[in-house]
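Appendix B, Record 12. Input sequence as logged:
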Amino acid sequence: MTTGRTNPKVDEFLSKAKKWKEEYEKLRTIVLDCGLTEEFKWMHPCYTFQNKNIVLIHGFKEYCALLFHKGALLKDTHGILIRQTANVQAARQIRFTAVQDIVEMETVLKAYIHEAIEVEKAGLEVTFKKNTDVVIPEELQTKFDEIPALKTAFEALTPGRQRAYILYFSDPKQSKTRVSRVEKWMQHILNGMGLND
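Logged structural output:
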């Protein structure tokens, strides 16, 4: 994919968007202006720099958002970054409820995107705290190491969904059963879905 160019999969995503369409399109323009590569990951427009995820556009019932993959490392001089849930360690969102909000914040948004690119260029990494009450089974951790996108998708799940998966994957006594459970549910996790969705 060439930098600053649109991706047909994102065109398709936008054409089907029932909610936040105008907001998505404005966010897309802003992000592409920052020279990122447009891709389509986890069923959302995702923008990368040298194959590293920088920012993702996604929407919920009450708001749409720019999700910075390493948002925890940004200075957040305007105090606008939101941690989606208490268990999210790296990612941070900037939320919007109207296209006007995005238009008014365009300069600020570009500054945050450029800062996120600099964080990536500097090779900075978020130091993850260990979740003390639940232990990620070795079989799941192995898959996270093999497939970084799986880890990112898993971390984007709500704490309850993460916990449900961890308990379900940890339950069998035999490692091979644990491995088969992880493999069976990987696509579900990548699709942003919980065990019971």
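The beta strands are 37-41, 44-49, 52-59, 64-68, 92-96.
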